[in-house]
Amino acid sequence: MSKLHIRGLSHSFKKEQKRLNVIKNLDFIVDDGEFIALLGPSGCGKSTLFNIIAGIIRPECGAMFLNGEYVDTHTDAFGYMQQKDLLLPWRTVIKNVLIGPEIQKSPDSFVKSKALSLLSQLGLEGFENSYPNQLSGGMRQRVALVRTLLCNKDFLLLDEPFGALDAMTRSVMQSILMDIWNKKKQTVLLITHDVEEALCLADRIIVLTARPTSIKSEIDVNLERPRSTTDSYYINLKKQVLDMLQLELESIFTMN
Ligand SMILES: Nc1ncnc2c1ncn2[C@@H]1O[C@H](COP(=O)(O)OP(=O)(O)O)[C@@H](O)[C@H]1O
Ligand SMILES: [Mg+2]
After folding, report:
1. Which of 10, 13, 17, 23 to mutate to test the pocket of ligand 1 (most atoms within 8 A of CB)?
2. For residue 27, how far is the Cα from the chain centroid?
3. Whose Cα sits closest to atom 24 in ligand 1?
4. At residue 86, does pLDDT exceed 80?
5. Under a CB-based contact definition with an 8 Å cutoff, are residues 186 and 34 in contact?
6. Domain segments of the chain: what residues?
7. How does pLDDT run across 117-154, given as a tens digit for each residue?
8. What is the arithmetic mean of pLDDT over 194-203?
9. What is the pLDDT of residues 218-234, one digit of tens each?
10. CB under 6 Å to ligand 1: residues?
11. What architecture is domain 1-78+154-164+176-256?
12. Nearest ligand to the C-alpha of residue 39?
């Protein structure tokens, strides 16, 4: 049985007097414990797809099955890190990351020490009592990741979690995420604009078409981890994925 099955998903937004078609007849299956990276041109509908999966947006058409059961409302099954960090400005870093456990129940000392340890692992030691406006974009993003991880869900939706980080910090964060995933084997859907990130992390890459988005291709990354970026199979896959994305980008620019 699949962990998640999306079937015939379509969605549009109202734009002035017209409809803007964003997702068109999208189908895919995610297996339990699988790490999937989603790549697609900017504005194609990736964040909208996550908002639909998380139950924030109700789709116009289509069905979603979680662990084999039909879901049509908001579910708390997911740890969702949205593209905007949505940190609460009046709460300190530690109070922001403890929101999930606080909603579920009052956080015990075990959760609090786990929070401190994750903050330290992600390079935020000493900033526990800072407020979000005292942090850089990259630091805020790491706080949002800690908050998502502390929700303790076995299914993570990560929307460009490392987008605001410089290349060095990003690569450290990718290894930390891999360590966490290796231990817990959560199911992960990760949106990224970085082909190397997708190739280094994912079991499978889903390439999305330009808007209205649907699946362009699904590519299995059959490589041992940690991945060698000099491996010829890796280099070929990278070229294949970049070529696909290039075609989708060209379709946007020739359409406009
Ligand atoms: N709430 C909304 N209302 C109207 N249009 C929206 C809304 N959210 C997203 N859009 C539009 O839908 C398209 C896809 O957006 P989004 O899912 O954020 O793309 P991506 O994450 O792939 O960059 C964009 O053209 C965006 O302007
Ligand atoms: Mg987005």
Report:
1. 13
2. 18
3. 43
4. yes
5. no
6. 1-78+154-164+176-256, 85-152
7. 999 999 999 999 999 999 999 999 999 999 999 999 99
8. 97
9. 999 999 999 999 999 99
10. 13, 20, 22, 40, 42-48, 211
11. 3-Layer(aba) Sandwich (3.40)
12. 1
